[in-house]
Amino acid sequence: MNIYPMKYLLLIIGFAVSSVVLAGEGEDIFKKTCAACHTIGKGRLVGPDLQNVTQKQSKEWLLAFIKSSTSVIKSGDADAVAIFEEYNRIMMPDNNFSDDQIMAVLDYISQGSQGGSGGSATAATPATDILAETTPDNVANGASLFDGHRRLSNGGPSCASCHKVRDERIFSSGTLAKDLSQTYENIGTAGVSAIVKNPPFPVMQAAYKNHPLTEEEVIDLTAYLKSVSEQRIYQVPADFSMFFGIFGILAFIAIFMSTIILYFKRKRLAVNHDILSRPSKVIN
Question: 3-class secondary structure for the chain?
Fold first, then answer.
């Protein structure tokens, strides 16, 4: 029996299976990582619409940009700098994907651009405004979720843990991440809701990996950030300097008086003073 045809058949089957696996991986990566900021044929979000992007840029350029957009921008590449400036100077997070994984994502984008298997999930459809029927109650709920007065349903951390906004209605002191006061103005409803629902940034991904937000919470937080963006120029940042100054003085006085009281109540003599002071007889 000639084993060579069988050998080639197995190679072909193996190649076909690996192609299907990579295609599925590309779709999975896109939906988990890229879809928060990009669409394929639905228009721009935080970043550009990726329809036909593989025809606009070389695969070498796309590989480098997806791995580290920061490096490509800092290199002075004209296209990278233009995208950075057009999209509100928001850096795309660097990724640790392998070349094969990135190529799988690009293949998925190509299929979606041509109406292939990826297109069924990302074909252009009229966008629905999730804030169309929101009320002031949604804004109030979003404020409570943002500053932690109301817990997220699945136990995720409040936004104020890392972010701050210019809003005198809440006490927001997070300084670990970006100020979100103008975020809605920059990226709109689609961008904000996409990031809140499916965070593309590593720290946010880790924080909400097992604590996803509900659809209602996404709407409430998006409505709140829209309100913040619209009202920020009328907000007067709260000044707590007088409060902390007075509190500091009162705390100092309390500590000082406690020290004096404890000082006068101290034991003035040694524990064995009375024993040592007793007259003793010297026995000759």
Answer: CCCHHHHHHHHHHHHHHHHHHHHHHHHHHHHHHHCCCCCCCCCCCCCCCCCCHHHHCCHHHHHHHHHCHHHHHHCCCHHHHHHHHHCCCCCCCCCCCCHHHHHHHHHHHHHHHCCCCCHHHHCCCCCCCCCCCCCHHHHHHHHHHHHCCCCCCCCCCCHHHCCCCCCCCCCCCCCCCCCCCCHHHHHHHHHHHHHHHCCCCHHHHHHHCCCCCCHHHHHHHHHHHHHHHHHHHHCCCCCCHHHHHHHHHHHHHHHHHHHHHHHHCCCCCCCCHHHHHCCCCCCC
